[in-house]
From TrEMBL:
Protein's recorded name: EamA family transporter RarD
NCBIfam families tied to this protein: rarD
PANTHER family: ACYL-MALONYL CONDENSING ENZYME-RELATED, SOLUTE CARRIER FAMILY 35 MEMBER G2-RELATED
Protein's UniProt keywords contain Cytoplasm: no
Organism in which the protein naturally occurs: Macrococcus armenti
Topology in membrane: Multi-pass membrane protein
Main location: membrane
Length: 302
């Protein structure tokens, strides 16, 4: 297996694991949504410490953290990223356990186009004609759902925006992906511990001698492993290919919402998704053609 094939395998595996997360969160659905989020942070941090200790990377992490602290802009960006991804996790867990899986799926379909929009606003990137059409189609789908149902798809937009903001912050921070997730969970760890303590004092915690408590111990593994696989895969394949593979995750979420959790897929849902899928197809085709042109140009030059 060559390096490129490994890249596809690692990246596809990451999106596959992200795609089946709804089933995992439903399996621990007896927990309060906040408690699930707090445990996810705690056990993610614990898993990362164990992983870094096992691979003898705790000392490099400490050195990297000290260096990062001197780069104030990057340090602030990492703090913002930590808070934003925590909000994203919380919204997703709430959506899954409150029968909004289709909206969650829609949010992650919209996410690439939201990232383009943030690049336009904050990084002064400019839309191509193709990207403009793709964003317009996605906006049309959201507008149609809002007018038809009379409710703005706030869950979808919140998930797409929070994850796009997380990606934007990560562009600013120059740090190894494994170190980054360790620091992100460390930054939010006090919030999680305080939250669990508060829930315990109010007798609203479910954690104890039960099977779901055993399952939630793996929240750290479920969080960190896809990120590590994605980091390993992204280094080996072009961005355009990552863009195509990323639709594995929302597609699996959509299928679970319809066939496992029996959420209704209405005509309004169908039209909305078709608009967004069309926009994503146009966008993905444009990126792939751009990659092919650059690849062919390099072959000619060499």
């Amino acid at each position: 297996m060559d390096n490129s094939q490994k890249g596809v395998l690692y990246t596809a595996s990451a999106y596959l694991l992200w795609g089946i997360l709804p089933s995992y969160w439903r399996a621990v659905g007896s927990f309060n949504d906040y408690e699930i989020l707090f445990h996810r942070i705690v056990w993610s941090f614990v898993f990362m410490v164990i992983l870094l200790a096992f691979t003898k990377k705790l000392s490099p992490l400490i050195q990297e953290t000290k260096a990062l602290y001197t780069r104030k802009l990057e340090f602030i960006a990492l703090i913002v990223a930590s808070l934003v991804i925590t909000v994203n996790w919380g919204i997703f867990i709430w959506a899954v356990n409150n029968h909004h899986v289709l909206q969650a799926s829609l949010g992650y379909y919209i996410n690439p186009l939201m990232s383009i929009a943030l690049g336009f606003i904050f990084l002064k990137e400019r839309f191509t004609k193709t990207e403009t059409i793709a964003i317009a189609l996605a906006a049309l789908g959201v507008l149609y759902m809002t007018i038809t149902i009379g409710t703005f798809p706030i869950v979808s937009i919140a998930l797409a925006l929070s994850f796009a903001l997380y990606g934007l912050m990560k562009k600013v921070v120059n740090i190894n992906a494994v170190y980054s997730i360790a620091l992100e969970t460390f930054i939010t760890l006090p919030i999680a511990c305080l939250g669990i303590a508060l829930l315990t004092s109010q007798h609203k915690t479910y954690f104890g001698m039960n099977f779901e408590s055993f399952l939630i111990l793996f929240a750290g593994v479920a969080t960190a492993i896809p990120l590590i696989l994605f980091s390993a895969g992204a280094k080996r394949i072009p961005l355009s290919l990552i863009g195509l593979l990323q639709y594995i995750s929302p597609t699996l979420i959509l299928l679970q919402g319809v066939f496992m959790f029996s959420e209704p897929f209405t005509t309004t849902n169908a039209i909305t998704f078709i608009c967004i899928w069309s926009g994503l197809a146009i966008y993905s085709f444009s990126k792939w053609m751009g990659y092919k042109k650059r690849h062919n140009r390099k072959k000619i030059e060499t």
